[in-house]
Write a structure and sequence with these properties.
Distance between the termini: 18 Å
Number of strands: 0
Structural class: mainly alpha
Shape: globular
Largest sheet: none
Radius of gyration: 21 Å
Helix content: over 70%
Order of helices and strands: HHHHHHHHHHHHHH
Strand content: under 5%
Number of helices: 14
Number of domains: 1
Length: 343
């Protein structure tokens, strides 16, 4: 998948995003996470029973795997609607928004340490001609809603699944994430304003304000602060909440269908509770190229917590990863091909 999927010249601001993405990818931190990821992947693979794994693959349900692809498409569709809600009256077609969403999700699958997130801002500018500050704002707000919905789903699923045996510690962690996310959402503009002022003070005190790059960043900060300050959370909450819930219903259904496609018996509530481990490790900026190893580690831990055997937890982690990676690549490629043919 090329970094620029059409022949339209990228705006200058978008080019700066690509430069920043490359800088983050080729860093010492990425190298450290790569070693960690490969070590985790090797350790988990060594725990698999090769004969049993091949048997599961041979008996995999093709119809359920196809349903996984349809469900992934639905999740992308709901994500696109969520972006449309935040854009308001901005003139950008749903087709272009779906293309942007598919590219963003694909690059998030393969880029390390969440650097694929920058792809959203890049393509919003390049394809949709949306200001960088607006693209960044949409990205931050939607991620906050993701955490709110994930925390709510997690709390409900573990209480319903474990009943009286529910761990108070797990509920407390879920409530903490939920509360912090809600507080951040309604105080986002103040956090950005204070962060902007702090950056101004630090650069002035340290003399870094004279550097060209810092001066350019300072110029952008005021624009970003203005974008975040003008946001009225209450106006958008109902539709953002609805589209976020629909998105995660589709994603949790994708987790469930992936497991069932390999012939492993599991309840829907058990699937929701267990998959949270994989979701959280994939959200944190500790993953490497393709999230290989780190996603499977979180997935394995989460599903073993809700009673799945070690082998099945590890196998379904790798199996889900292959399915969702393939689905994201197929959808992104089809969007890329359609854009080329249309042009």
């Amino acid at each position: 998948m090329p970094s620029q999927p059409n022949s339209q010249q990228a705006p200058q601001g978008a080019d700066q995003i690509l430069t920043e993405r490359k800088r983050r990818i080729f860093s010492a931190r990425t190298a450290i996470f790569l070693v960690l990821s490969l070590s985790l992947g090797y350790f988990l693979l060594s725990k698999l029973d090769i004969g049993k794994s091949f048997e599961i693959i041979r008996n995999a349900n093709a119809r359920l795997i196809a349903a996984c692809f349809v469900t992934y498409f639905a999740a992308d569709f709901f994500k696109m609607l969520r972006i449309k809600v935040m854009l308001g009256g901005h003139a950008i077609s749903l087709v272009d928004l779906f293309v942007i969403t598919s590219y963003h999700n694909f690059f998030n699958q393969i880029m390390p340490a969440r650097t694929g997130e920058l792809t959203f801002v890049y393509y919003m500018k390049k394809i949709g001609n949306v200001d960088l500050s607006k693209g960044l704002h949409i990205l931050v707000v939607t991620r906050i809603f993701d955490i709110i919905v994930i925390a709510a789903f997690f709390i409900c699923s573990i209480i319903l699944f474990f009943g009286k045996k529910t761990s108070p510690a797990l509920v407390a962690v879920g409530l903490l994430f939920l509360a912090l996310s809600i507080v951040i959402l309604f105080n986002l503009k103040w956090l950005v304003i204070w962060s902007g002022k702090l950056f101004h003070v630090i650069t002035k005190k340290t003399g870094m304000v004279e550097r060209p790059l810092v001066a350019k960043v300072l110029g952008k900060i005021d624009v970003v602060v203005e974008e975040f300050s003008s946001f009225r959370a209450g106006r958008f909450i109902p539709l953002l909440a609805l589209t976020s819930i629909l998105t995660w219903i589709a994603l949790y259904l994708l987790f469930y269908l992936s497991i069932r496609s390999f012939g492993i018996e599991i309840g829907l509530l058990q699937s929701v509770a267990g998959s949270t481990g994989g979701v959280l490790t994939n959200v944190l900026p500790i993953n490497t190229f393709g999230s290989f190893g780190t996603l499977e580690a979180g997935w394995t831990g989460g599903f073993m917590l809700v009673g799945m055997s070690q082998h099945d937890a590890i196998f379904t982690g790798f199996g889900y990863h292959v399915i969702v990676f393939t689905a994201s690549a197929v959808v992104a490629f089809l969007c890329f091909a359609a854009k080329k043919i249309w042009k």
